[in-house]
Write a structure and sequence with these properties.
Elements: E1 4-7, E2 10-12, E3 18-24, E4 33-39, E5 46-52, E6 57-59, E7 67-72, E8 77-82, E9 91-100, E10 105-109, E11 113-117
Parallel strand pairs: 2-11
Antiparallel strand pairs: 1-3, 3-8, 4-5, 4-9, 5-6, 7-8, 9-10, 9-11
């Protein structure tokens, strides 16, 4: 079992920055994949960025060049640095973790943190 707690959301102006954190309740060293997703009102939840245990990173086209995902295994935390924020980045951001125990995959989600980009 892994509990995930997101933090760092809030209000930012267009062009501004925020850093989201996702703290896990246990070591993330063996967690195969961690990701950030977002869901705007009336829209489906989409993946924003992901990072594997070996450091392979992927970004959605909408955030490439503006967002950076990173993981600190020593702190059991994954981060999402968001720069050059746009109105369309407004959403609830969720952290997820996928872990394989040798026989099956387990998927975990945080409760989400609101990001609002507005002037």
């Amino acid at each position: 079992q892994v509990q995930l707690v997101e933090s760092g959301g809030g209000l930012a102006q267009p062009g501004g920055s925020l850093r989201l954190s996702c703290a896990a309740s246990r070591s993330i060293f063996s967690i195969n994949n961690m990701a950030w997703h977002r869901q705007a009102p009336g829209k489906k939840r989409d993946v924003v960025a992901s990072i594997t245990s070996s450091g392979i990173i992927n970004y959605a086209d909408a955030v490439k060049g503006r967002f950076t995902i990173s993981r600190d295994n020593a702190k059991n935390t994954v981060y999402l640095q968001m720069n050059s924020l746009k109105h369309e980045d407004t959403a609830v951001y969720y952290c997820s973790a996928d872990s394989y125990d040798g026989s099956k995959w387990h998927n975990y989600w945080g409760q989400g943190t609101q990001v609002t980009v507005s002037s």
